[in-house]
Amino acid sequence: MVFLCWARPSLQEQKACIYKSGAFNYDSKHRGATAKPATVLQEDGELSKDGFLLNHAKFLVGSGPETYEKGKNALQTWRHFGLNWAFVDPKTPIQSGVRFCACVKEFFPWLMMPLQVVYVNENKRTRKSMASFSFGSGTLAGHLLAGEERFSIEMDEKNQVWYEILSFSKPAHFLSFIGYPYVLLRQKYFAHQSTGAVRKYVSAL
């Protein structure tokens, strides 16, 4: 089952995709794994044993508390998906259990890929910890991939603000099996484009 749309998917079409999608399409033992640091996942033998590949990108987007708050708001309003070829309904709440549709344009049709928010984490700045906001989403039946992805914004001890994307995935449909090298390239391309969207948002007056 693949959800395709020849024009930019309407809200009604996205809702139909979410309604028809099934449960999570990856093992529950990996649910929430992206909440861990990238270094921990890189050493996780279970993920590689089960055929998952990691995708990790981290970019500096600015500095200072104001930039951090803007970055947090960017994630909460899906600005990191504000691209001409990829989007999520910006009114989708970032809450555990919420299902949503990531719409991506590939060649002629749009792909609608169902996901569910698995967790939302936020840490306030203290003397012993950095400020951070993150959420992870898992793929549902009907998605071309199986896996999970985390988006996070973080302000470190030097007040530098970082945007990070961490995911693990493997093909879940024959189309992604035969085109997986292309999928991996698109993930890297999305990371750069998404970072540009976040930088643009946090630097706006």
Report the biggest beta sheet as strand number plus sense, adding barrel if it closes. 8 strands, antiparallel
Q: What is the tally of beta strands?
A: 8
Radius of gyration: 17 Å
Helix content: 25-40%
Q: Enumerate how many helices there are, as a single number.
A: 6
- N-to-C span: 44 Å
- Main structural class: alpha+beta
Mean pLDDT: 93
Helix and strand pattern = EHHHEHEEEEEEHH
**Apparent shape:** globular
Low-pLDDT ranges: none
Query: Strand percentage, roughly?
Result: 25-35%
What does this structure look like?
The chain has helices spanning 11-20, 38-42, 45-49, 65-76, 174-178, 180-203, and strands at 3-5, 53-63, 86-87, 99-105, 110-123, 131-139, 145-155, 160-171. With 205 residues, the chain is an alpha+beta fold. Helix 4 (65-76) packs across helix 6. The model has no long low-confidence stretch (mean pLDDT 93).
Entry summary:
The protein has helices at 11-20, 38-42, 45-49, 65-76, 174-178, 180-203, and strands at residues 3-5, 53-63, 86-87, 99-105, 110-123, 131-139, 145-155, 160-171. By secondary structure, it is an alpha+beta fold.
